[in-house]
Amino acid sequence: MPILYIDAVPVRVDDTGVVTRVGLLLRMLPDGTVSRALVSGRVLHHERIRDALVRHLEKDLGPVALPRIPVSPQPFTVAEYFPTPGVTPYHDPRQHAVSLAYIVPVAGDCRPRQDALDLVWFTPEEAASPMVQGEMTGGQGVLLRQALAHVGCLP
Amino acid sequence: MPILYIDAVPVRVDDTGVVTRVGLLLRMLPDGTVSRALVSGRVLHHERIRDALVRHLEKDLGPVALPRIPVSPQPFTVAEYFPTPGVTPYHDPRQHAVSLAYIVPVAGDCRPRQDALDLVWFTPEEAASPMVQGEMTGGQGVLLRQALAHVGCLP
Amino acid sequence: MPILYIDAVPVRVDDTGVVTRVGLLLRMLPDGTVSRALVSGRVLHHERIRDALVRHLEKDLGPVALPRIPVSPQPFTVAEYFPTPGVTPYHDPRQHAVSLAYIVPVAGDCRPRQDALDLVWFTPEEAASPMVQGEMTGGQGVLLRQALAHVGCLP
Amino acid sequence: MPILYIDAVPVRVDDTGVVTRVGLLLRMLPDGTVSRALVSGRVLHHERIRDALVRHLEKDLGPVALPRIPVSPQPFTVAEYFPTPGVTPYHDPRQHAVSLAYIVPVAGDCRPRQDALDLVWFTPEEAASPMVQGEMTGGQGVLLRQALAHVGCLP
Fold first, then answer.
1. Distance in Å, alpha carbon of A35 to nearest chain D alpha carbon
2. Which of B59, B89, C30, D63 has a CB 3.0–4.6 Å from the CB of B142, allowing a cystine?
3. Which residues of C22-37 are buried (b: 16+ CB within 10 A; e: fewer)?
4. Residue A103 forms beta bridges with which residues?
5. Residues of A at the C interface, defined by Cβ within 8 angstroms
6. B3-150 belongs to which CATH class?
7. SUPFAM superfamilies annotated for this entry (chains A, B, C, D) (predicted)?
8. Strand partners of residue C98
């Protein structure tokens, strides 16, 4: 069966809701390479999606990130990560994962935790640039640009 | 882990996209009671969500229903069916299932198949009426009204 | 030409994004009757929609309401208020108005201003109750239930 | 006041709802230059948005295009065309126009009409390519890529 995931795109916003920065984690992959990544993880048995969002955001951004979890369960898109490349833009060699993707404004202090080496806040232009996109894997660069398109900040 | 489902609300539409009818199946439940239901079922390993939609619509409505699968993977809502009643409006005593819900116009001939006893096309008003709502179980009546709200036909 | 409006549904949320209360204004209508209403108003020439949202929320809820304007311009629905009743669920005898509808969490202190007599925070159940729905006009009761459906709180 | 518009992205889809082609019109602009464009136009007084969609699609694609108007009034985004460049990604030197943007599968024969010189069906990759994007004006290239992001076909 497919595994249920959430993907969260952490963003900073101004008073009118305009996205000014996108937060990307720097992760060490199992093969020793380093890549930029969204907040991402499984939904557990008996866990609500909104609780999974809170848990993974806290795990990756720390306990005082103050994420503003979306009021609606409607994700901006659904990313289907297939073990076979090319079925969709998303790829996960380990498993078939279906991820509900949300954009989450965070208002507090963020510090990378767990397996994340760093957290960098990029402007939408930087986040969509070939350099940053080239540092993302598994189709998360596409997912990030879909998020930017949804908030009206696609360069 | 939660099981991934799709829920599809089959609808008839006029030339301007207005929903004129909602299709509900009549199912015999394991305990012998009868209830009205949406098209619903699991997403399989290695199966795209849009292929799961096609498969379940064909299974329940027959091979010439001519469903118009949505172009966007964005569902109108996500229904979280918990084995414990009351966590969300949705309840499934067998399992924790997370269902991506889509509204699917169907243009062809529909005939109930498999375990469905009948298929009835209701007006939006009838579908939202206490009588029809009372014949739906597990929170699918709520899901149906959410679909009607999304298409602007909530009485 | 149709006049462009915004409708905002002010809500209180918990830490996981669940809507716990919906804020409704009490307004005196020109004919002397009193009705419950959403935050609503025109978009001005040269004004962005997100600036119109900020302006009308501040006008109706005061300067320290701290509204969290949505990051995406995608409204949860579009309400078409026709001067002729019955074309859509929405009705405005004065004009043809097309309103982009958003759900806006507010975190600060709210106090009714301008032409609003009062502001009351209802639970989703109360907001959808026949009593409160009966106190709303022009189809805003339908719009409110559409908002509740979108956030998964439709009773 | 802002003028209310609709933008429609005509697409061809396969049986599972995947977008296979995007239709772009070739228009002669007032200054004699030629540009690729979406189906676009005003909403009239007393006209429903879905009727405006039908009217403009028929005007630009002909009477047998068989457009499948979306069942939900929720647009995938709202494009705010300002007369001042840079306020948003969208620009219209003539006026402040706010456009509700929809993706519309068309199943029939399309032929360009009125002021359109031609209609070309591009793959999503071609539509997002620098060459085609360079032939679009007023931010419609951005809008087109937002549509591709929404349907999961952003290259």
1. 20
2. B89
3. bbbbebeeeeeeebbb
4. A9
5. 11, 13, 15-19, 48, 50-51, 53-54, 68-74, 76, 103, 105, 150-152
6. alpha beta
7. Nudix (SSF55811)
8. C4, C80
Q: What is the DSSP string of B16-85?
A: TS-EEEEEEEEEE-TTS-EEEE-EEEEPPTT--HHHHHHHHHHHHH-TT--B---SSS--SEEEEEESST
pLDDT digits (tens, 9 = 90+) for A119-128: 999 999 999 9
Q: How would you class A52 by CB atoms within 10 Å of its CB: exposed for 0-12, middle for 13-18, buried for 19 or more?
A: buried
Nearest CA in chain C to D48: C80
CA distances from B62 to B41, B49, B51 (A): 15, 19, 15
- Which chains are adjacent to chain C, needing at least 3 Cβ pairs under 8 Å? A, B, D
Q: Which of C154, C152, C3, C144 is closest to C77 using CA atoms?
A: C144
In tens, the pLDDT along B13-69 reads 999 999 999 999 999 887 888 899 999 999 999 999 999 999 999 999 999 999 999
Q: What is the mean pLDDT of residues A127-154?
A: 97
Q: Number of H helices and number of E strands within chain D?
A: 4, 8
Side-chain-side CA neighbours of D67 within 13 Å: the count stands at 30
Contact check, Cβ <8 Å, B72/A76? no
Say whether pLDDT at A2 is over 80: yes
Which residue, chain included where needed, has tokens 């937002």? D146
Digit-coded pLDDT (tens) for C64-91: 999 999 999 999 999 999 999 999 999 9
The secondary structure of C87-123 as a DSSP string is SSSEE-TT--EEEEEEEEEB-S-----TTEEEEEEE-
ipTM: 0.96
Can you tell me the distance from the alpha carbon of C13 to that of A32, in angstroms, rounded to the nearest whole number? 41
Q: Which residues have CB under 8 Å from D120's CB, separation 6+?
A: D23, D24, D26, D36
Asked whether the beta carbons of B123 and B75 are under 8 A apart, the reply is: no
Q: Which residue of A has its CA nearest to C69?
A: A17
Query: How close does chain D come to A49, measured CA to CA in Å?
Result: 21
Any idea which of B44-58, C18-32, C118-132, D59-73 has the lowest mean pLDDT?
Answer: C18-32
Cα–Cα distance for residue pair C53/C106, rounded to 1 Å? 12
Verify whether the Cβ–Cβ distance D77 to A142 is below 8 Å.
no
Q: How far apart (Å, rounded) are the C-alpha atoms in residues A13 and A67?
A: 12
Element (H, E) at C61: helix C49-61
Coil, strand, or helix at residue B150? Answer: helix
**Domain spans of chain A?**
3-150
Single out the residue of A14, A18, A107 nearest to residue A61, CA to CA.
A107
**CA A68 remoteness from chain centre:** 14
Distance CA C54, CA D150 (A): 27
Chain position carrying tokens 């939408």: A124
